[in-house]
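Late entry, evening session. Most of the bench is empty. Finally got around to the prediction I had been postponing all week. Sequence below, unchanged from the version circulated by S.P.
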Amino acid sequence: MANREELAIIRNARAGQAAAQLELGKLYLFGSAGLPQSLPTALHWLERAARQECRQAWQLIGNHIPLALAQPSAGALAPWYERAYDDGSVHAGLVFAQLVLGDGSAPGATPDTPGSAKALRALEDAARAGFPDAQWLLARRRDAAPGRLAGAAAGAGTALVSAQAWLRRAADSGVAAAQSAVLEQAWDAGRWDDYLARALPLARTLVRTAASQDGVQRLAPADIALLSRVARLLDDSAFHEGGQAEHAVRHGITPAPGEPLCFWELAAAEHDRHAQLAMGLRCARMGVDGRRIAGGGGAANFKKAIRWLSLAGEQGLAQAWYALSRIYIKPEFSQRNVADAQRYLERAAEMGYRDAQLECGHNAWRARRENENNDVRAAYWLQKAAAQGCAEALVLLRKIAPRLDTPPYVETGKLLAGHEEALQAHPLLHARLELAALFSLSRAEALLLDVSAADQGHCLVIDIRASYGRSKRRLVLVETAQERHALDRVARLFEGIDCGPSGPEGNYRQRLYRLRTLVGMPAKGEDDGDGTAEIGLAA
């Protein structure tokens, strides 16, 4: 309860005396025996005193009233922070800049906005003085490029630091958001040594904190990702292709005893899929390709490995399904099952894992004698793998479905040129010649192909043996968007049409006679497109 002296100060402050308002503001600002500390009440009386040109009042506002309290009345309070900054208060300059420029997530005030140039100078002064919030705000501002800042603060006469430099200084000062931003940049750029230098101490702190809390509090997603990434960079068995572990050692970054296993375990328990994959591979003592890790002592625990790998696979990690397929074909695995291995292999391939697609292609091609259509399946998976840059898949594709360039397979398509007008009245024949030009079909193949049955989406199955016994079944890949569009258009044209000898096009002799008549070719003694001479052709 206020004493007699404080009651007098309250009466005089209500009467409008600046000195009493200043004194009452101090009492509420710092608290007293009779009055509790109350920053909102202190701001109210100090602001009233400042209106009466009380210099000490605006200095107290600038030095002691935080941004959160000033933001609701930014327009009215910013001048007092500006005056306190002019009097030499760097903290006041920081709050003034925050009120004028915003929080940095949006462009905020432009250099043309009144007070923005001065606010930028105040912000830089605070950043140089070591205020982390100022450094972070400078880094976040979209107009923090040196050219714009220089134009806005040309009168300052000081060298301006780039936004990236301020970001790193804010991270070094302990601003969590700045640390996350710097780490994300280093990860995206592949600067592993820089990432580890900053992230490894943070990861160790997370492990100590989790151990002290005994798993009571869950980790944030960003913390889980940090643990997983640090473990991946330190552990060759999980990320061996890039050689990050050797890279880290060369830069003096070495894991402590128990690392990165403790990082993996903590991240895996928090359902990080990469950590679950790593734990599964550790338990199986192998790499993703199934090969035993060199120096991996101890017996493999496939039961635990399958559990971790299944969890990682269910979260969309194709490598986990591929690793599972390797386990199920291992001779030493007591529950070895080739069917399960193939099922997991195809699941990884369907999710886009290149090695799995290549192996699915190989498996299907080797099994083509069991089922003639396995070559179609092989071409499908190999085409997927080749699209991801697999040279081995591309070589095998050329063997399975070559584009033939010998005369019988290229001359038929050339018939279309120069006879467009004559062929317009025969759209089905025109379409067949168009396919011959696109896919290098012989004359017999072009005339007898059942387009709807041949189209497999990724390839054409050229099989006219039922109508032309001298031919051989073969595949032709659909390689470009132009070929796919043309094939779709032709397929729509043949939709619902019988392509057999009882259909509207007639038998092979009738089709060949029609073609020769329209393009003006001789009827007898001429190669029919497969290397044999057609004789006795009836009209």
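Two things to note before I forget:
The longest strand covers residues 459-462.
The chain has 31 helices and four strands.
Will write this up properly tomorrow.
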